[in-house]
Amino acid sequence: MLAEGFSVALPTETVYGLAADALSPAACARIFEAKDRPLSDPLIVHIPSLDWLDRLVVASPLALTLAEKFWPGPLTLVLPRKIMVPDIVTAGQETVAVRMSSHPIFQKVVQNFAKPLAAPSANRFGRISPTTAAHVLSELDGRIGLILDGGPCTHGIESTIVHVLDDRLQILRPGPITEDDLRIFANVFHGPAGVATPGGLMSHYAPRTKLVIEENPTPHGPRNGLLSWTRNGTGFYQTEFLSQSNNLQEAATRLYGAMRRLDGAGLDLIIAEALPESGIGVAIMERLRKAAA
Ligand code: AMP
Ligand code: MG
Q1: Same domain, 61 and 169
Q2: For ligand 1, mutation pick of 39, 43, 170 (most atoms within 8 Å of CB)
Q3: 259 - beta bridge partners?
Q4: Domain span including residue 284
């Protein structure tokens, strides 16, 4: 199906992706169509092997160091594009986002395909990313030809995206690879993006039900749901626990599934308990703020 230019949903270690031939503009157009994604939002390109890096982008020594250290894994590098990358993939920008997935099924598919796959998250634009095949089905049923079911994703939130400059890194989207992990290799800075990052839109990863974040959640009404980090849920209509052992990694893995269950529970408000902003907690809180925006 990929060879014929169709899109296929595949498991990755972060979330499920909707993959298509990254070198075929027509195949990539199918991704945008299935997701209702605006053409201004660029796609991440997943490469089958490291030798593809040089063909697609201008890889600085720092980029190569990061690729060797973190790939295959949940780190996306934004680098200057080469001519081979179609405009539809970069949304017309001069950079392209590249990564190499560690998921054994994804790896097998992309290596057999032997070309890069463009693969954004397999959800409708602006909605909660899918972490199981069933989530993909509920988002894209009737719009795509195939879902490969690889079970639940291990990380559960999207890759860390960094813009790689000559001697420093800008985190465009926090994720499983944390600032502490990256600071070993280069200076890391925040601040206004030097490149457009539509994934940085204020409202993103959003449930349909209104969501607010509170330090000490208490119900405001009879049909409130709780997304809990430490609370027991007394007084709430429904509670989803992110990690009963207070493990941030487990919370990341469970986050989107829990948000989906609360969103489907007929609630009038979801109250998310604030999590500690350390390690992957930074990425979890960023997703919650976007869900609340
Ligand atoms: P998704 O895979 O659905 O999480 O979406 C991919 C996200 O990667 C986009 O929303 C962008 O924020 C980001 N991205 C992709 N390509 C680029 C690029 N060339 N420059 C900056 N950000 C990018
Ligand atoms: Mg996405």
Answers
A1: yes
A2: 43
A3: none
A4: 211-292
